[in-house]
């Protein structure tokens, strides 16, 4: 499949290494575009959609079921609070954070919550707006650069792995939760 000029969730997740059998959390799931793309990619794995908006979560569940995706679970949670996602610690193979950082009031807390729920060496797939794009994207003051986001994750206990294609209006990268250093 060729990448369109706008964000293509299935293409981005394929390039991020999301695959069969994984357990994935989609933080700030919103419309569920990434949730449903991840559900297709993980097959018998499970995708948890986490959002503060219960109406959106209900819609995600309904759309998923109508598309035959029975591996989607929904959970109302606040990813900016410690333990606020409501998900278990060190359980997930991957966490998706697509178009989340630009709107987060506490970006450091989001990174901490992603770190908390990931297994070692779990991966975070981070995608966000690269600019305001004449009003198509967020207000220019809310745009977070890829380098600033990468720094947030590196300071939060992650190792940068690679960039991923995210269309003409977004940037994307994958980071891995650092392994525990053994005492010698």
What can you tell me about this protein's structure?
- The protein has 184 residues and is an alpha/beta fold.
- It has one domain: 3-Layer(aba) Sandwich (Rossmann fold).
- It has helices at residues 9-16, 33-42, 54-66, 107-117, 146-155; strands at residues 23-27, 46-51, 72-76, 92-98, 118-129, 158-163, 170-177.
- A 7-stranded mixed beta sheet has the order 3-2-1-4-5-7-6, sandwiched between helices.
- Helix 3 (54-66) links the parallel strand 2 (46-51) and strand 3.
- Helix 1 packs across helix 2.
- The longest helix is centred in the first third of the chain and has 13 residues, at 54-66.
- It is globular and about 40 Å long.
- The protein starts with 8 loop residues before the first helix and ends in a 7-residue tail after the last strand.
Task: Describe the protein's topology.
Blueprint: H1 9-16, E1 23-27, H2 33-42, E2 46-51, H3 54-66, E3 72-76, E4 92-98, H4 107-117, E5 118-129, H5 146-155, E6 158-163, E7 170-177
Parallel strand pairs: 1-2, 1-4, 2-3, 4-5
Antiparallel strand pairs: 5-7, 6-7
The gist of it:
This protein has 184 residues and is α/β, with parallel strands linked by helices. The chain is 28% helix and 27% strand. It has a single domain (9-177), classed as Rossmann fold (3-Layer(aba) Sandwich).
Residue stretches low in confidence (pLDDT < 50, at least 5 long) are none
- CA-based gyration radius: 15 Å
The succession of helices and strands, N to C, reads HEHEHEEHEHEE
**How helical, in percent, are the residues?**
25-40%
Question: Would you identify the CATH H-level superfamily?
Answer: Vaccinia Virus protein VP39
Shape: globular
CATH domain class:
Alpha Beta
**Spatial strand sequence of the major β-sheet:** 3-2-1-4-5-7-6
CATH T-level topology: Rossmann fold
Q: What oligomeric assembly is this protein in?
A: single chain
SS-derived structural category: alpha/beta
Q: Please provide the count of β strands.
A: 7
Distance between the termini: 48 Å
Strand content: 25-35%
Secondary-structure arrangement, i.e. CATH architecture: 3-Layer(aba) Sandwich
Give the number of domains: 1
Quick one: biggest sheet?
7 strands, mixed
How many alpha or pi helices?
A: 5
Roughly what is the average pLDDT, rounded to an integer?
Answer: 94
